[in-house]
Amino acid sequence: MEITNIRNRTGFRNQRIHAILEGFLDKIERSLRPHPEVVEMASYAVDRFMEIAYEADALDTCLQLSRISVTLNDMVMEQRPLADCLLELQSFRQPFHQAWIEECDRFDASADTIVDYSSRMNPQAGEASAAGLTDSVSQNDSAVPQSSFPVTDAIAEDSAASGSFDYLGTEEHPFDEELTAIFLTETEEQFPTAERLILEIENQPENANLLHELFRVMHTIKGNAGFLGLRAIIHLTHAMEQYLDSFRNQESEITTISTNLMLEGVDAQKTLCANLCCRYNFLTNTRVTEAIEPVDWEGLSNRFIGT
Amino acid sequence: MPKYLEKEESTMIRVLIVDDSLLARKAIERVLQTDKEIDVVGTAVNGREALDKISELKPSVITCDMEMPVMDGVQTLMHMRKEFPHVKVIVLSSLTQPDSIKERLCRNLGAFVVMAKPKMHSDMNAAGDANELIRNIRRSAGTA
Lengths: 307, 144
Prior knowledge:
The complex is a heterodimer. By secondary structure, chain A is mainly α. Chain A contains twelve helices and no strands. In chain A, helix 3 packs antiparallel against helix 4 (82-108). By secondary structure, chain B is α/β, with parallel strands linked by helices. Chain B has helices spanning 22-33, 47-57, 73-83, 101-108, 126-140, and strands at residues 13-18, 38-44, 61-65, 88-93, 113-116. In chain B, strands 2-1-3-4-5 form a five-stranded parallel sheet, with helices on both faces. The A-B interface holds A 164-167, 169-170, 172-173, 176, 178-179, 182-183, 185-186, 216, 219-220, 222-224, 226-230, 238 and B 21-24, 26-27, 30, 67, 94, 96, 117-123, 126.
């Protein structure tokens, strides 16, 4: 049977999504009360994977996946007792894994079946990783690939929520690794400076220079975020700038409440950057080390503007 | 692209990018690279470095950030007026209010145009911002 090219709109590698899915299922299995977001992401990953498997005629895998999908949906909708769902999920894991391994042998034949998103950016990298991939397929007979809490296509949903339009990239504006990497490096450098300045301001609230310096740091962060359209970071940083401005014009006095709020703001900025880093690692296929942590950037921004 | 197909360097518009942020320099370079007639001849991290490099790199137009350490946009303009009046300066501002005092000052000091920094993400404005920057560069070089 001819295996045709598997093209997937977000360009995930088959093995990667398998690893991701297994990671989620592991996490769910290990918890007494799995986090609803994890269950939803797992459900997403299953649907994604089913599309791929279906296109590749891996029908047995599809069947196993559909059973898992139903169970996960029941968990999301809370249709049945959680304990039942968890038990059922556990029983489905091995058959799914088995089916996938067997049908993988058929994929092994041609590297064409695996689309490497990064190869669109860097043709040499694409070949190297496709070659590396066929090795990992044969090694994965016994071990379920381990991955720390990774993220999936649900990132797209999260992106919309956290405010970066199309940050996964589109045909005309593909995801830009270089600019994202530069952004992360430059911005992460600013955070210790910002924190130091905030603490110094707490000790010397009358020092206008410190305030000005802090404002400049925020302005730099906002400017950088502007290049990549990271709406959450832009919005939050702008709110923080306005907050600082109100002190510059001496409309209000700086207290420990103010400096604490600023520190909270910087923390939120750090988390938003960490989330971005997570997506960057995922999309560039490097090891994902952190989970995406939701940030209520709108609420926090309102606290800055409201005061 | 093979050498014989590349546009001759003498007809290309030479641009120097001045900004203290690496991201900004890269992003602007990306935008300008899409135009075959624009040649990014160099970058500088502040006005001082830009002035030092101009005699060597001979740009016909520079893009300049407003806020930079050592020598900011306004000071750079003042020096440019004295030392290199024939080089056009396009001031790129990240300020949100369109007509602040600083921007009017820049125009009075002889900036060719003051415009917002181009966005690189894909939303409705991205292509518009990029095109506007390129258009301004071409206008400044007289090849609109």
